[in-house]
Amino acid sequence: MTEVLVTGGCGFIGTNLLRYILENRPDWEVVNLDQLTYAGNLENTDDLAKRYPARYSFVRGDITDAPFIDELIGRRRFDLVMNLAAESHVDRSIHGAGVFIRTNVQGVQVLLDAVLKHGVKRFLQVSTDEVYGSLGASGSFHEGLPLAPNSPYSASKAAADLLVRAYIHTHGLDAVITRCSNNYGPYQFPEKLIPLMVLNAIKGKELPVYGNGRNVRDWIYVEDHCRGIVTVAEKGVSGEAYNLGGGAEKENIEIVRTICRHLNRPETLIRFVKDRPGHDFRYAMDHSKITRDLGWSPRVDFDEGLAETIVWYLANETWWERILSGDYRNYYERMYADR
Ligand code: NAD
Ligand code: TYD
User: Fold this and answer.
1) Out of 29, 43, 87, 130, which one is annotated catalytic?
2) Is the C-alpha dihedral spanning 320, 100, 221, 82 positive or negative?
3) From residue 103, how far is each of 149, 163, 241, 337 by CA, in Å?
4) pLDDT truncated to tens, each residue of the chain (339 aa)?
5) Which of 41, 162, 253, 257 stands 20 to 30 A from 108 (CA)?
6) Which of 45, 85, 84 is nearest to 62 (CA)?
C-alpha cells in the first residue's frame, strides 16, 4: 500500500482527485485532511467514505496548525503528501489577503517542516499558471519563466512555490510542483466563472461579466488535471515544476454565450460590470515539458467537457441548492455530533 495524504480534499479539485485516485490506484490508501472552510463541502466525499471504507478516511484540520500537522504526519508515515488546501478565489484575495498568506504560504511551510522531519518520501505542491503573471495577445507560459504574480492570491501561490524550491535546495527534500490552468467540471464552488454563470443562467439571473469580457483563460477539464497530478507524483523528477493546460483558450464572453445557448437563455441576461482590479488579461500554458517527459496530455475536448459540466449541474440541483442556502456548512456538525 502507498499511504497518501491529500489536503483540501473537500474542495473542487481535491474531491475530483480523491475519486480519481480511489478508482485508478487500488493500492493507494488516502487520508483527506480538510479544514472545511466555506469552500470545503464534506458532502462531496460522503459516498467515498461508504464505497472505500478501508482505503479512505477524513480528518478535519488546518494545515497551519503545526502541532496537529506534526502529530498526524508523524503518526501515519505517509509515502506522499499532496497539498491542495488553499484559499483559491482571486476576488476574495482582493478584499482580504490575510487568510491567503496564512493558508497558502504559512500552511505550506508547516507541511514542509513536518514532511521533512518525518521522512515523507515525496511532497507535491499543487500550484497555478497564475504565478507567471499575465500574457499579452500572443505567447504562452513555460516553466523557465520568472514568477510574476499580480493578485494577492497568485502572490501567495508563488511564495509557496518558492518555499518548496528552498526546501529542496536547502534540505534536499524530494518535492515536485504542478502548475495548472483554469479548471472546470463537477463540484466547482459557484463563485468561479463557469459554475456561477451556469447557476445564474438556470435561475434566469443576470450574468456579470467583468470589463469587456475579452480576458482569456486556458481551460482544462478537472479530471485531466487530476490525472496530471498523479502522473507528476509518480514520475516527476524531484525539484521540477510541470505545467498542465487544456489547450482551450477562450474569451470569457465566449464561454458565457455558450452557456446561454446550452441552457436556452437569452444573451440579454449578460451584464458587463466593473472590471476586477489588476485583472490578468490572458493565460495560456505551454505543457510540452510534461507531455515530452512524462507522457501526459489533456484528453477532454472543451466543448464536450463544458456540455457535460452543464449537465452535471442540472442533474445535481440538491448539491448546489444546499450551497446557495448555506445548509452544507451544518453537515459536519450533524455527521460528527455523536462521534
Ligand atoms: P477550493 O477552494 O475549491 O478548495 C480548497 C479546499 O481547501 C477546501 O476544501 C477548503 O476547505 C480547504 N482548505 C482551505 N484552507 C485550509 C486550511 N487552512 N487547512 C486545511 N484545508 C483548507 O480550491 P480548488 O479549486 O479545488 O483548488 C485546489 C488547489 O488547486 C489550490 O491549491 C489552488 O490554488 C490550485 N489550483 C486551482 C485551479 C482552479 O482552476 N480551481 C487551477 C490551478 C491550481
Ligand atoms: P475565475 O473563475 O475567478 O478564475 P481566475 O480569476 O482564477 O482565472 O475567473 C475566470 C475569468 O472570468 C476571469 O477573467 C474573471 C472572469 N469573471 C467574470 O467575468 N465574472 C465573474 O463573475 C467571475 C467570477 C469571473
Assistant:
1) 130
2) negative
3) 17, 13, 21, 26
4) 999 999 999 999 999 999 999 999 999 999 999 999 999 999 999 999 999 999 999 999 999 999 999 999 999 999 999 999 999 999 999 999 999 999 999 999 999 999 999 999 999 999 999 999 999 999 999 999 999 999 999 999 999 999 999 999 999 999 999 999 999 999 999 999 999 999 999 999 999 999 999 999 999 999 999 999 999 999 999 999 999 999 999 999 999 999 999 999 999 999 999 999 999 999 999 999 999 999 999 999 999 999 999 999 999 999 999 999 998 988 777 777 765
5) 41
6) 85
Amino acid 137: pLDDT: 97
- Tell me whether strands 182-184 and 216-221 are parallel, antiparallel or unpaired: parallel
pLDDT of residue 331: 76
> Where are the strands (E) in the chain, listed by range?
2-7, 28-34, 56-60, 80-83, 122-128, 175-180, 182-184, 207-210, 216-221, 241-244, 249-251, 270-273
Nearest to 179 by CA among 214, 208, 149: 149
Which atom of ligand 2 is nearest the CA belonging to 280?
14
> Is 129 tagged catalytic?
yes
Taking the C-alpha atoms of residue 73 and residue 83, their distance in angstroms, rounded to an integer, is: 13
Q: Does the annotation mark 87 as catalytic?
A: no
Which residues sit with their C-beta closer than 6 Å to ligand 2?
90, 182, 192-193, 196, 208-210, 215, 217, 252, 276
Residue nearest to atom 36 of ligand 1 (CA): 128
Residue to mutate, 10, 13, 63, ligand 1, most ligand atoms under 8 Å from C-beta:
13
Compute, in angstroms, the gap from residue 264 CA to the centroid of ligand 1. Answer: 32
| 37 ligand 1 Cβ < 6 A | yes
Report d(CA 66, CA 196) in Å as an integer.
35
> What is the CB neighbour count within 10 angstroms for residue 314?
12
| Distance from the alpha carbon of residue 193 to the mean position of ligand 2, in angstroms | 5
